[in-house]
Amino acid sequence: MSDVMEAWNLEGPGGVDAFERVRRPLPAVRRGWIRIAVEAFGLNRSELHSRKGLSSADATWPRILGLECVGRVDDPSDSELAVGERVVALMGGMGRSFDGGYATHALVPRTQVFRAPEDLAPATLGAVPETYYTAALMCLDDLALTGDETVLVRGGTSALGMAAGEIAKDRGCTTLGTTRNPKKAARLRETRRLDHVVLEGPDFAERVLRVAGAVQAVVECVGSTASVESSAATLTGGGRIGGAGMLTETWDTDAPPVLPEGVVYGFSRSDLVAAQEDDAFMAHLLGKVAAGAWAPNVHRVFAFDELPEAHRVMANNEAIGKLVVLTPE
To answer: For residues 107 and 35, is the Cβ–Cβ distance under 8 A?
Structure first.
């Protein structure tokens, strides 16, 4: 077994050319932390923010980005996990305050590591952890969707938006998804992952209501004040908005949304994972994927040496669904 790993390092914020492929000693295992031999990792919009220096205050440099990964236990430390067990890891400082998943090995707190099914290919499993955890948390817990509701998904072509639409449909809801791009709208309709697709633009709320009649809940993946306010305008009888992502590059903290009476707005904190409390929840969503009830829409799978290109595709908003990177075998 080699005592060296490969990784994509960033010395500081920059463009896609700032990534440097490096070889380093394996991270030393310590109590309470698991070393994972990474098989694959998905890309997330927040990693684009981190690369540009727009991440949260806990981000430090130099850094290996990546707030999720899937793989096998390489060293279980003092945990009950066994060498070779299939696992997923996500959030809680990965790729921000400590090195993350853009590597062949990752050292992650046990509290952020979950057992995973054996029968999912790395490219499929790599599309699941952060995206489906966040979407399921929003739809099943925060919004507590019921089958007789109509749900609007803002940012419907994002991986998170597609997962949320799929989970809402699985609950029995009528679903509408949005996009700014007519070509993406046509491709999204082809996926049949949403009941209706609505283009962003003038008279947005009126056009949504012409299609839906009424909307009871919104999964808000765009994150801007203007988007939240126009989402609220579709909730003519009051309702719930769940913030579950940020496709924009700046938080509108100085301009909180003005919401009609009866509209409740909350933001999901999927970064606060805890394996002991969330084991059953993660097992449920991974089981749904393993059974084929939920099927991640993987836009493209990249080889490890294509990581800068994967970031370029993400930055240019070319994807419909998830981008996944495989590590060298």
So the answer is: yes
The closest of 232, 281, 224, 220 to 258, measured between CA atoms, is: 232
Q: What is the pLDDT of residues 188-199, one digit of tens each?
A: 898 888 999 999
Domain total for the chain?
2
Torsion angle of the four alpha carbons 296, 169, 119, 78, in this order, in degrees rounded to the nearest 10: 90
In angstroms, the CA 285 to CA 304 distance is 27
Per-residue model confidence as pLDDT tens digits over 313-323: 999 999 999 99
* Residue at a domain's end among 267, 283, 307: 267
Distance CA 288, CA 284 (A): 6
CATH number at residue 163: 3.40.50.720
- Identify each DSSP E strand in the chain by its residue range: 4-9, 20-25, 33-42, 68-75, 86-90, 105-109, 113-115, 150-154, 174-179, 196-199, 217-220, 239-243, 263-267, 298-303, 322-326
82: which 2 tokens? Answer: 């066994």
Task: Give me the helices (H) in the chain, please.
Answer: 45-51, 122-125, 129-136, 159-170, 182-191, 204-212, 225-232, 275-290, 307-315
Whole-angstrom Cα distance, residue 223 to residue 284? 27
